[in-house]
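Handout, section B. The chain below has 173 residues.
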Amino acid sequence: MNAGFFKRLGAFVLLCIVQILVLNNIHLFGCATPLLYVMFVLSFNRNYPRWAILLWCFTLGLVIDISSNTPGLAAGTMTLLGLLQPYILIPFIPRDSAEDFQPTMRTLGFVKFMYYTMLCVFIYSLCFFSLEVFSFFNWRQWLFNMIGSWALTVVLILVIENVIRNERREQQS
């Protein structure tokens, strides 16, 4: 096993703990819940094995489901996002990039990373809250939950990624 596996495992455990203990208890205005664990999917390299992405995403979703009492919602939606992530990443990466290209704010640039994050989190929020409600009788609440959680999650991911980028910059100096 290599260092990349343990680094990914550490991120997995950290995101699970933060989501379960802190973020699941935040409901801004009764509709916006940050879904920070989606950040895990955004970090997969360009040519990471697809079966491994699906396995990681399903396992993360299953852990979130077990601790949040949302049977199958996060697991199914994370698996879908893990399936789509390599295809979503393609338009944002430079043509001459390396085979093991890591999508970060530093490598993609702020604007491309923001659009990449917004698209992935939107797909996740749309699927997650559509499965959670499973009807469109209360479509306003569904829309508020989806858009509120999407916006809050995107802002949180961009702030964390910016802090990580600044830390790396200070370490290189």
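Note. The chain has a mean pLDDT of 88. Compare this with the example in section A.
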